[in-house]
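Researcher: Hi, I'm a grad student and pretty new to this. My advisor asked me to get structures for two proteins we've been looking at. I'm not sure of the right format, so I'll just paste the first sequence and hope you can take it from there.
Model: That works fine. Here's the first sequence with its structure tokens right after it:
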Amino acid sequence: MMKLRKLMFVLPNLFTVTSIFCGFYAITLCTGDAGPVQLYQAALAIFFAMFFDGVDGRVARLTKTQSDFGVQLDSLADVMSFGVAPGLLVYKWALAPLGFAGIFIAFAFTACGALRLARFNVLAARNPHGGGGRFFVGLPIPLAAGMLVSLIISHHAVSGGEPLRESAVMPVAMTVVGLSLLMVSTVRYRTFKDARPSRKSALALMLVGLGGVLIATQFHPAWVLVACCGAYLTLGLVESAVQVRSRLVARKVSPGAAAAVAVAAVIDDEDEDEDAEEDAGPGNDGPAFL
């Protein structure tokens, strides 16, 4: 029984190591004179890394084998599979014509992803007894990588494997910069861990499904993944903007309201620590639906 218990601790780490392998394989595909086919395969490898990254934490919780070792291994896996691999992939796919500027933009994506993980690991160490949070502070690195991967997969499907046009290089570069900044920002993104079956959730799910069908029929099925990632990015920005606006309005209403806002800000700071602790857990650096 004791040996079986020890083997159970290995199981979630195997999923994490598999995620690392997918990231490493994507890097090997991007080396040398990688063509559109190799870059497409690398994007698929990162997509599979996202799947294994989402499974390892859930396996650890189901088998009650969470450990500090698994937390650290998961962070290292995220840096490689969702930081280094996507950075190199997007450089080879779109940013190479920009020269050193393209190298720096791709590096900034990797660096910001590493900074995000390091920041929240530090917050987790300061608040080891925090509970599960409803929000991530900053864009999760798997989502940032997923946005780039979805663009590459969709472009390959739509263009029939043609290289990216020069006119699209700058928009892609701006997208990479924006994703990098969102990762190190304080914009809050929902984890959907508090989602429960209800009329509201059913309506939201139906709207997402109808939107996907509309995009698939009017444009191309490959753009559905891009639309889903874009909708998640927009949701976080809109909710954060509304929250900031509400605070500014409350401060202008009355001194009493300003005091209430100050108290709410303290509570929010405590919630951020809890969110960070949950965010740094094994396989938790992304929304619950991943």
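Researcher: Oh nice, that was easy. Here's the second one.
Model: And its structure:
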Amino acid sequence: MKKILLTLFAVAALLPSCQKPQCQRAEEDSSNFVNITDVVPDVILEIRYYGTYNFVGKRIDGYLQPVALLTKEAADSLKAVSDDVKAQGFRLKIYDAYRPQCAVNHFVRWAQDPQDTCMKRYFYPMLDKPVLFEQEYIYEKSGHTRGSTVDLTLFYMQTEKELDMGGTFDWFGHESHPDYCGNPHNGEYTGIDKNLNTEEVQQKGLTEQQFNNRMILRNAMLRHGFKALDSEWWHFTLENEPYPDTYFEFPVKQL
């Protein structure tokens, strides 16, 4: 889930400074990034890793200000998404966008500490930390660090509340999968949790409205050049991202 790049920096730490990889300067270059609010002025920000309400329970390294950054290309596509959902009565609400390498390293350290479970009941009550890598909730690389991935939801202007998606951002579980209780490819609601598929689980699954709400977000993102992740309903990456092989390390702060 939190895609983590570790190998490159482990190797770089063993090299003298003059022998660091040539891509080092490029990874520190924020010149093709923008503040999302400069491109989408009415977006709502709730940058979870700047605060303490996240699965770690602390402010994450590298988040110096509660802002959201993206590559220019991703931000332009997100503006098209915003215009689309505004016509339907919604606004975009962003939890995370560009994520620096030191933040991903912070996730690694947290995942390797089995004693630190202060946020377990809120984000992973059914899991023990040692399985987070094994079950791919924590990865070795993060699309967020490439600068064209965003975690977001919809804010319903009529109720002045987040749209009910039937689950919280960063929930570690199959309940976060886009195909939970339905088929995201054709929008068909089934109400069935295919992972366990028992009557008891079906009764605890998404309502049809909650599933449809997820589809409103998903369909708008896909219409405007983003691709979805099969394990998180809130996570989208620009299909033609400008830096598919580059992982950046500058901090999150106003540009």
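Researcher: Is there anything I should tell my advisor about the second?
Model: You could mention this: The longest helix spans residues 208-223.
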